[in-house]
Amino acid sequence: MNNLKKASFWNFGGMYFFYFMIWALVLTFLPYWLKNQGHLNTGDSGLVFSTMALTALILEPIYGVIQDKLGLKKYLFAFVVLCLLFVGPFVQFAFIPLLNINPIFGAAVGGAFLSLCLNGGVGVVESYIERSSRANKFEYGHVRLFGSLAGGTAAFIGGIMFVRNPYSIFWASTCSAIILGLLLWMVRIKKLDYQKDERVKDESEYVNKDNILKVFKKKSFWGLCLLIIGSACMYDVFDQQFPNYFASFFTHKSAGESFFSKVASVQTFLEAGFMVIAPWFVNKVGAKKGLILYGIILFIRVLGSAFFTDIWMLTVWRLMASLEMPLMLVSIMKYITGVFDLRLSATVYMLGFNFAKQVGVTIFSTVMGKLYTNIGFHNSYIFLSIFIIVMVAIGAFLMENDKTANQTQNIKVKKVIKPL
């Protein structure tokens, strides 16, 4: 409860709220917009998401190294906000004309632009605020719940806005970006504990090729990558076309779209509630077990969506995501800071989580789009669920236990001393 007394906690909470307001508005309704306004089939829609992921693949290593070198300086975050400001104008005045010129070209350009501030930019936001939470002495998972509240709010109002004017959600994103920029400007930078020790090399010195290459020599890094491809990546791939699958069980598609927006809103508010207790739970069982549990729940949700397709059961499967996200978001950050060097936290997060995730999304968005068209959702979901459980099992086998690694992590950064 001490968090509530800190102005910085509310400042970062507001930043999370308005960033994920944009995230939820755009990504929740983008499949509908691409289909109804862009007139794209599932294969071409998959190309948009694949391009977003491919662009993020290029950005993530660059973003990660830059942010680790910057430490808590906010220049890169400001660049992401600048890109967000142009979401409304881009979709209103450029996206449809580009799709009219050529659907594939338009999908590629649109996906690349959106990735600058969403698929690619989210890593900057997450890693910056996680590092800031350690500097300001509050629990990352608690400030992250503002993102879940934003998702619920956006899903609820977004459904109403989209029915009235499909372009309004993108202009609302631009307005949210203005507020986000003001909140970022208000942030007052603090130092992390190890930064206060004059003997310890700062980020700009420590973040170099040799130390980054050491990350790739750790078995835990590759295990984390495989687990993320099988879980967080497949979570995104599964959710890309699930709104259309859900709506197909209604007599009138508009009724299905409206109902789904309400279900998504409830899910994200439940997610915010679970986010409150997620840090306590993950601290209790360990971050590695939290990630494994996340993958198991996703496996159950995907397989259940293939076989139990009554509307009320599909609603249950969607609501189960409210358990997954708190587990994943808290566990991934705690695992990285518990097993890897703290000064490389952004690089490891960008590569081990976002980069690995986008590799999978780049490949499987198009693959699953084709499978949906050729063999239907039922068989596609069976294939997806098998892939999930296999990848989670292999990744978990390779990953080091974070509770064991954390016993020595707190003194690692003090081993690198500036020469006298």
TrEMBL record:
The chain crosses the membrane at residues 12-34, 46-63, 75-98, 104-125, 145-163, 169-187, 221-238, 258-282, 291-309, 315-336, 348-368, 380-399. InterPro entries: LacY/RafB_perm_fam, MFS_trans_sf. Keywords: Cell inner membrane, Cell membrane, Membrane, Transmembrane, Transmembrane helix, Transport. The keyword Transmembrane helix applies. It is found in: Cell inner membrane. The keyword Heme does not apply. Its main location: membrane. It is a multi-pass membrane protein. It comes from the Bacteria. PANTHER family: 3-PHENYLPROPIONIC ACID TRANSPORTER-RELATED (PTHR23522:SF10), BLL5896 PROTEIN (PTHR23522). NCBIfam families: 2A0105, PRK09528.1. This is Oligosaccharide MFS transporter. It comes from Scopulibacillus cellulosilyticus. The lineage of its organism: Bacteria, Bacillati, Bacillota, Bacilli, Bacillales.
